[in-house]
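Incident review: delayed structure delivery

Summary: a single-chain prediction request sat in the queue longer than the usual turnaround. Root cause was a stuck worker, restarted by the on-call engineer. No data loss occurred. The affected request and its eventual output are reproduced below so the record is complete for anyone auditing the incident later.

Affected input:
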Amino acid sequence: MNKNNLEYVVDQLLTLFPLFRKKLFRPNLNLEHTDLTPSHFHVIVMLNEAKRLTMSDISKRLSISKPNVTTLIDHLIIKQMVTRIRSHEDRRVVYIVLTEEGKLFFDQYKKLLAAELKQKLTIFDEDDLKELWNALEVVNQMISKIDSE
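Output delivered after worker restart:
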């Protein structure tokens, strides 16, 4: 791929991310009735996916300092969304895991988000939905090829 094509793809991706957020996802959807911030929710989403993470893992994934992660986690512990569990192999390692309350919160939030997305997508006719479906499959396949770290 030549440099101009690569720059175009990068520009399109940089345009697409804020558009997704603005048009499809309200940042604080139904977080108003909680005292959770979007950062708290990001931690809950990551833990739901990974099952358990260390403070360092969370810090790296969110690109925030460990002291800030500690503040986030402490708040989620008070809200009974997460708990700390020591590793059986190495007692120096402490994992953060979702509690049943945290899992329930995630499931409820995901249902609300899915319902909102479905409502927004009702403006499309069947052909538009098929085209979007195909485009999303291609994007998903392409993004899956990228190594994460």
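Verification: The domain at 3-144 is CATH 1.10.10.10 (Arc Repressor Mutant, subunit A).
Action items: add queue-age alerting; document worker restart procedure.
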